[in-house]
What we know:
alpha/beta; TIM Barrel; eight-stranded parallel β-sheet; globular
Amino acid sequence: xxxxxxxxxxxxxxxxxxxxxxxxxxxxxxxxxxxxxxxxxxxxxxxxxxxxxxxxxxxxxxxxxxxxxxxxxxxxxxxxxxxxxxxxxxxxxxxxxxxxxxxxxxxxxxxxxxxxxxxxxxxxxxxxxxxxxxxxxxxxxxxxxxxxxxxxxxxxxxxxxxxxxxxxxxxxxxxxxxxxxxxxxxxxxxxxxxxxxxxxxxxxxxxxxxxxxxxxxxxxxxxxxxxxxxxxxxxxxxxxxxxxxxxxxxxxxxxxxxxxxxxxxxxxxxxxxxxxxxxxxxxxxxxxxxxxxxxxxxxxxxxxxxxxxxxxxxxxxxxxxxxxxxxxxxxxxxxxxxxxxxxxxxxxxxxxxxxxxxxxxxxxxxxxxxxxxxxxxxxxxxxxxxxxxxxxxxxxxxxxxxxxxxxxxxxxxxxxxxxxxx
Length: 422
């Protein structure tokens, strides 16, 4: 603060020495009043930037996945978890419904295409996991938004990949497998009409069949930028470029933009289909920051938001360094989205092999609140208080301190000023 004053008023103090004694008293008064006014204005602006809005609503969410967790495979444990979340004043759950090449709910669409209506894991058989979450979740006042976790991705050895090899896209060298950690993945071609129809049918099936509050996608509804060199996509590109083949360099700006635009077109189609099926079904997207999602995954969520295709944004900011965490919250596209729709922040509470202390979680939540975001969602349920180096009591007490009283999730209605054209 003092450095700014010195810089701002140094020209004025230089003028001081040129004034006559008779005028110095009056001039000193002007300077004093000016400094006082600036200090008051500075404090006022600072207060505007740091005082959070009244907490009448806040997203308090958590993702439920079947990766490193058996929660979804055990009915009693699942129901108990939903009740515990309500007890600790959470208000939203994002259960995965599309993962490892299977649906986690009984699906006629999956049965027709994959040959199985349900993930073969024993704990899912003879029950409808999603129906349970909707029923028990709503009984406990929780908003339920199913999450299509794998998007266009599938295990390389999945029945889907084996049954529909022509649905897969590939690298320029013809290779289809893209490793993800220790796992071999393949990607469905998001530009192929049969693939688009399959995914669209799955989404509409859920929206129509279950009393859900929304549906969520992430940047797995894009495509790793090194892919897209399959025959179908190459021929489509040539058709729209006077016979010219796609650039050899995957990060070529026009090649990235062309593919991203095609995915945006599909997201527009998806949005329309969801709304035609259930008008009040929230369309939620939980991507990585734009500088990652767009160039690396062709998922241009900034444009989706600008076009009105997103009604809730939950930005994944999985960063340990507090300075980097804060910087991700302040990018222009994030701040622009806040003016249109509820924007919340995804915070990592840990992984199977990664411990995140409660102190870090609480600090990050406070930074989000200080900047008037719509709330937070945690990845993922098991690391709230099960997969952690701290005791269950310590963790649950920590979340109780974060959420001492219940509040509703944010109003999901978008403002009417969102443009609807590209």
